[in-house]
Amino acid sequence: MGSVDLQSVTKTYGATRALDEVTLTIAEGEFFGLLGPSGCGKTTLLRAIAGFVTPDSGRILMDGQPVERVPVNRRDIGLMFQNYALFPHLNVRENLGFGLSVRHRPKAEIAARVEELLRLVRLEGFGERKPRELSGGQQQRVALARALATNPRVLLLDEPLGALDKNLREEMQIELKQIQRELGITTIFVTHDQEEALTLSDRIAIMRAGRVEQIGAPRAIYERPATVFAANFLGAANLFTGMVEAREGGLTRVRLEDGSLVTTRDEAAPGRQVTLAVRPEKMQVAAPGEGPNRLSGTVSHEVFTGTAVILRMDFQGRAISVFAQNDGGPLPRAGEALTAAFDPANAVILTDPAG
User: Fold this and answer.
1) How many angstroms separate the Cα of 179 from the Cα of each of 122, 127, 204, 252, 310?
2) Which of these, 42, 152, 155, 316, has the minimum number of CB atoms within 10 Å of its CB?
């Protein structure tokens, strides 16, 4: 088992509400990401689940049982932090067996479990080394194995890969996901890294100012953000504000502030002011001409990323990003005219207007 339910969890520090009526459910075996900027409350929420923070109000349940007043050492959780917190004077085996030894498990049981953990994280033969003799990735594996040593029902990870360089972080994302799937353990992790959240999570909660802004599967939130904040924080988004003119033939017609006409498959009542979000990769370089969902401007600059070129276009005084695959074909250069187009299915009406 390992389900976690949070019901209207609130925590205040002075005049600041670190958690503001947070309600969410994490299913058994789920890999759940808490994503948001610094100060949004995600680490406070993780610490409340762990037992390091006591909520002012609300309930935290594990497998249906309230735990908000249960001490940390009785919650049956595994913890892993960004700095790993390995004991420098102990070797790998001793680090892995520490939690079991303080629980007074038999030595034979501890030894067997340590060997099992070494195999799990692919560190056979490293048991006698001290943490300083390991690479960053190896230390991360030891920290993960130690968090799993007592077979906890829930694993909590606070920025688990933040100390690694980009290439190693990407490699460890795959390994972490494989280990979590193999064990089937409920895992909740905090990150501010959008790509990490998309890669690891079964579901993501985007947090903002102590509240949950949106919850859903990574692809669902990315493709269908609900708010301006969610659209901008998880990826990049071009935002267009306008007035709904009509709903015809399965399309909603929106007149933008500059007079341009665009359409979306999302529904909205005529006369309503709306904000549309379109991801840069859903905007294509198009031939000049009239028609819906064709926006023209001037390329202000180009951003070369290797696999793609992101063209920044000045559209009526607003910067728009257009993603172009680096396939060797010609692309407009800075100072040249550019027309971008998008499919109505890729324009999402957000619930809040852009400021």
Assistant:
1) 11, 19, 19, 46, 36
2) 316
Q: How many domains does the chain have?
A: 2
355 assigned to some structural domain: no
Amino acid at 32: F
Same domain, 164 and 33: yes
Angle value at C-alpha 211, between 210 and 213, nearest 5 degrees: 135
**Tens-digit pLDDT profile for residues 247-269:** 998 999 999 988 889 999 999 99
pLDDT in tens, 268-303: 999 999 999 999 999 988 877 666 789 988 898 888
Domain boundary among 202, 224, 246: 224
Sheet of 251-256, strands arranged across: 261-264, 251-256, 238-248, 273-278, 348-349
- d(C-alpha 284, C-alpha 330), whole Å: 14
The residue written with tokens 């998880």 in the block is: 234
